[in-house]
Specification:
Length: 396
């Protein structure tokens, strides 16, 4: 869940930064006396004490700790209200929705931001209109939290407001969050705005997230999306943007993306981009001479993973014009995993050379011998292996 469930993405914590607790098991139920001590410690002068206290409280049952947290949400102490909103989000206090909506009007930005974050975790639609009003808040932190919370709720009613935020907000972090939220909503009605941001926003993080959102959109194969993603893949100076554009073109399934992907496979300076472009062409699976040319070029790439993806993609495409380049690559390839993928690609491209396979059966590498046996058993014996994936997608 990209640490979503662990509370590491909260806007404001006592220590001021997200504390990674993803490797810690849930705390056992604590006695009432200990919970009372922890509640008292939320007002400590020591930020570390407050941080640990709210984390431990956040591991308790909502019905046990939510009433005490709610009482602190109305405290005259702003820092106590801030940590209380954080805690209510941690325990998923569904009984606190109305109070958290009220806290969105708090005078302290940290309270508003944490309350928006908590409402996003609760995913209660009654908070949507109040969250959208925060899209115009003076504090970028609050706007970002509200936009992300709206993106967690499956409602297209926020698309227009999110689109305006993507186009006009002066904080790059907020625009990036808006692009992510539109991607969560499958880009309904926002393709033109996302395409413009993917190619024209001044911030690379916004362009990257907009490219991701276009790949996640219902109409990702539309000409607007494919054109913008192709432009980003060819021209963007940022490697993360180009790689995400390649991934999104693969997700689109559009045969019109082949030329841009093949060009990236042949000439992009980043092995990450070349490898993801190979994956994308395999994901599209269109038997196109341009795709085959780009992929066979990558069989000589210096990076093992890039060659693996190219071999996998050639197997997905299954074009017999690739058999000779695959055979030549097999003769020089030293990496056993890539050789296995090449054997699979050779078979799926129509290769039936028993002499070649018999030679592979005598290989000193047991994985290559296994691949040869699979090939002799028939192409279906290779499904779905190997299945290389692109890098993880971006998140706000």
């Amino acid at each position: 869940g990209n640490n979503w469930g662990n509370g590491v993405d909260a806007p404001v914590t006592p220590l001021g930064t997200a504390q990674d607790r993803s490797d810690r098991a849930r705390t056992d139920e604590l006695p009432a006396a200990d919970i009372s001590r922890l509640m008292t410690a939320l007002a400590s002068d020591d930020a570390c004490v407050r941080e640990l206290s709210i984390r431990l409280i956040g591991d308790q049952e909502s019905s046990v700790v939510a009433p005490e947290l709610l009482s602190r949400l109305s405290s005259s102490d702003a820092s106590l209200r801030t940590v209380a909103a954080f805690g209510l989000g941690l325990v998923h206090a569904k009984t606190a929705v109305n109070q958290l909506i009220g806290a969105l009007r708090d005078a302290t930005p940290g309270v508003r931001a944490n309350s928006a974050w908590a409402l996003g975790r609760l995913e209660d639609g009654k908070a949507l209109s109040s969250l959208v009003q925060l899209f115009r808040d003076d504090a970028p932190m609050v706007r970002e939290a509200a936009v992300i919370a709206a993106g967690r709720m499956d409602s297209t009613s926020t698309v227009a407001a999110l689109t305006r935020t993507l186009q006009h907000d002066d904080a790059a972090s907020v625009r990036r969050a808006a692009a992510w939220a539109l991607g969560q909503l499958d880009g309904h009605g926002a393709a033109v705005a996302l395409a413009s941001a993917a190619t024209g926003d001044a911030d690379a993080g916004v362009r990257e997230m907009s490219a991701w959102a276009l790949g996640n959109a219902d109409d990702a194969d539309g000409s607007v999306a494919v054109t913008a993603l192709g432009t980003a893949l060819r021209k963007d100076s940022d490697v993360d943007v180009r790689e995400t554009a390649a991934w999104a073109l693969g997700k689109s399934g559009s045969e019109a993306a082949t030329d841009a992907l093949a060009s990236a496979a042949e000439s992009d300076q980043s092995t990450r981009v070349r490898g993801t472009a190979a994956w994308a062409m395999g994901h599209i699976g269109h038997a196109d001479s341009r795709a085959v040319a780009g992929l066979t070029h990558l069989l000589g790439d210096s990076n093992d993973d890039t060659r693996l993806r190219a071999a996998w993609a050639l197997g997905q495409i299954g074009d017999n014009s690739a058999m000779q380049p695959i055979r030549e690559a097999l003769n020089r390839e030293k990496n056993s995993e890539v050789r296995r993928a090449l054997v699979r690609a050779f078979v799926k491209s129509g290769g039936d050379s028993s002499q070649l396979m018999t030679g592979l059966l005598n290989s000193g590498d047991p994985e290559v011998r296994e691949a040869a046996v699979r090939s002799l058993a028939g192409a279906r014996a290779f499904n779905p292996w190997p299945w290389p994936w692109p890098r993880p997608r971006p998140w706000p």
